[in-house]
Amino acid sequence: KSLKGGHYNEYKSYLSKEMDVIGKWGTTGTALDNQTSALRPSVVNVGSRCSQLALCQTEIVVRKLKALNPNIGFNIIKMTTKGDQILDKALSKIGGKSLFTKELEVALHDNKVDFVVHSLKDLPTTLPPGLVIGAVLKRDDPRDCVILHKKHGNVKRLSDLPEGAVIGTSSLRRISQLSRHYPSLKFENIRGNLNTRLKKLDDDDKYDGIVLAVAGIDRLGWQERVSIYLEKHDMLYAVSQGAMAVECRQNDAKILKLLSDINDTETAIRVTGERTFMKKLDGGCSVPIGTWSNLDEEKYVLSGAVFSSNGKEMIFCEREDLLNITPSPLLCGTSSCMFSNEHVSNQKRKTICNDNGIVHGNGQVSFNGMDTPNNSNGVQSGSETANGSNGITDFSRDMIDIVHEQFPPFTAQSVRELMEHNLIIHKSGVCCFIQDVGKFDVAQKCGASLAVNLINRGATVLLDKVRAEGLQNINQAPVRELPRELQSMEPPRKKPKET
């Protein structure tokens, strides 16, 4: 009941057989049911942008959670972000990496909401301290598509459009790739919500077509508007395009457990590689980076490319990594586990244990989960807490390593509660099941290696050149004039030096 896939009885049977390996890692029967119930909040506040698509996506998440948790109430709190407010500039001209997420994350940090729903492609690859991705939903179609003006109703390929046809998009990634393949096209900036952009296409004679993400069109039920689907040879999609993510507080075990029921592991692994690729290249809305990924039971394949703004230059690479992962030591209890050759030093392990309330001694360490009045570090000399109760679990050194190879910093209480339900925060910032950690590691390594390959072939120079081509950050825009009553308080401005 508390594990993905409903393998509750199998899990209880497994625990009884492996108790000598795992120690007191969780309980069975009614006790585990009670712990699961204790981790269910009664009311959840959900943050969302105000756009029609954002609200649609948030409602999809809420419906899925409500179906699994009918006794929980969900309140959707609408917010407007900076990206929603600035509609007269292309995203590449605005700059910044949190245009559609910052206000939501501030509310999350201030405990005004319990989680927020994003289009994952809008979420920066580096999250604010204390926030993580609690769930990634099953990916919808990640491709881009073209919606043509009604006057081009018979056009089936972009090459059939007349020379000089105007395509509306504010994405440098889309412009650079379409310019490369269809140099006869012209491009004009178009911003706004999906329905706003479609209205501009229909009502104005300015655009011959616009480029949009297929996933957004599908979620709003407008599939009949799509004229042309863009395949890999025409358009590499944006990192994480087509996936929705739920962001929450790192130490909120109740919400993380709630969200684990709607997490799609395959999608989460794929986008982990893509986001690592983007992060290593220091990418964002202001540079043209495209990707394409595939995952099956045996391998993870990731393609990636960077482009010049006019599409004439491209650096492309593809990498394939096998998913031959040894089971987690938390599940197998053997010495030949995924981190057996990457153990942290004894001194580092001791420091980690002290910082996180994990007991260290005689080759075994217990995770008691709570600081006590008698010891501010929460470290006990044995496997019992100050009040005499046993620690939640006994960990071998391999088990400690798997915890601390992941996303820091943890609190003892949150790790205890997560691991009771077979969850951990991966070092990429995504919550996942413990047995899937190795696959996330493969995807992360694949994305980083792919980026390094492109960097060695000149990707950094190419992207820096794109950034230098007229980037105007909104923080450099003219400051609004102060009210008259406050003008006298404004500090005098220094006269700029002549050069």
Walk me through the structure:
This protein has helices at 8-22, 30-38, 52-68, 82-85, 91-94, 102-109, 172-181, 194-203, 214-219, 253-260, 265-280, 329-332, 346-356, 397-404, 412-420, 437-456, 459-467, 484-487; strands spanning 43-49, 73-79, 115-119, 131-136, 144-148, 166-168, 186-188, 209-213, 228-230, 244-249, 289-295, 299-307, 314-322, 365-367, 393-395, 423-425, 431-433. 34% of the residues lie in helices and 17% in strands. A 5-stranded mixed beta sheet has the order 2-1-3-10-4, with helices on both faces. The longest helix is centred in the last third of the chain and has 20 residues, at 437-456. The radius of gyration is 25 Å and the shape is globular. With 499 residues, the protein is an alpha/beta fold. The protein starts with 7 loop residues before the first helix and ends in a 12-residue tail after the last helix. The protein has 18 helices and 17 strands.
